[in-house]
Amino acid sequence: MVRVGYPEWPPAAEEWRCPFRIWGLGDESIHFGHSVDSIGAIQNALRGIYGTLERLGVPLRWEGLDDDAGDDTGFSMDTNTGYGLAFRHRIERMILDEEAKLPDSTRSRVEQERREARRKARAKARKEPQVRDVDMPAPFEPTSRSKYIRWIAERHLVRRDAVGSIVLVCMSDPELLSRKRVWKCPFTILGLGDDDSIHLGDGDDSMAALQNALRGIRCTLDQSGIPLRWALQGLEENDTGFPMDTDRGYGLAFRRRMEQMIQAEIEELVRPIRERHERREARRKARAKPQTE
């Protein structure tokens, strides 16, 4: 079982942290995703979960999916690999290019399979809510309940087309609609001209709703066409901190192929750096070696 807690700012801390915990794999201690804002802490907690599950290598499958779904935990790699915005944009273009190569029949079949998987998962009797999902965001439903929402995380973005204008992104915690047995995670984006709208990322469990809310935020910001930047010193232009992830809704095989592609690109990027470091280390050891007569 995997759980994520609320982001928090501990006393005397210099950054936000978001706790996460994985039961059943040996180490059941609480870990944290850290960041300069509360949404970033959530994102890094999700990255920490993905990294932990990948590193352990235990074959796992999200409960509720069919056996033929393979080792699909619903945690996917995103394109924010820590190597800069230009590298991230190149990876995202590569993913979109690979996606465009898929035949229309594949896209239709995958969408039908996703609908069937959701139907089976919802029909399955559960003793308690599960903690995973892999759906892409459904159409976001605007509501007018902002005064009843408890916002748990936020991010400030700077509008580059209007001096001094700020866009505020807020997220709430997922909630279960018991009648439909669907989880919903509310989010809103203030400053894009639709300040009263609350949108919902939905999923078959609370983690999925949280993930789909993050995907929904990215989609909404991209579709607005407004040039935005995360309101932090030193960041590159047009970096909102909401990256694309490899779960594009085309199944586990496509996602794994995209993850392997990203790892290959990272290796190509860091290999010259590693080789330079190894050469410097070899020269240092050679100089430190005692000279023999």
Automatic annotation (TrEMBL):
<feature type="domain" description="DUF6968">
    <location>
        <begin position="2"/>
        <end position="54"/>
    </location>
</feature>
<feature type="domain" description="DUF6968">
    <location>
        <begin position="153"/>
        <end position="244"/>
    </location>
</feature>
<feature type="compositionally biased region" description="Basic and acidic residues">
    <location>
        <begin position="126"/>
        <end position="135"/>
    </location>
</feature>
<dbReference type="Pfam" id="PF22302">
    <property type="entry name" value="DUF6968"/>
</dbReference>
<dbReference type="InterPro" id="IPR054241">
    <property type="entry name" value="DUF6968"/>
</dbReference>
<feature type="compositionally biased region" description="Basic and acidic residues">
    <location>
        <begin position="103"/>
        <end position="116"/>
    </location>
</feature>
<protein>
    <recommendedName>
        <fullName>DUF6968 domain-containing protein</fullName>
    </recommendedName>
</protein>
<feature type="region of interest" description="Disordered">
    <location>
        <begin position="103"/>
        <end position="139"/>
    </location>
</feature>
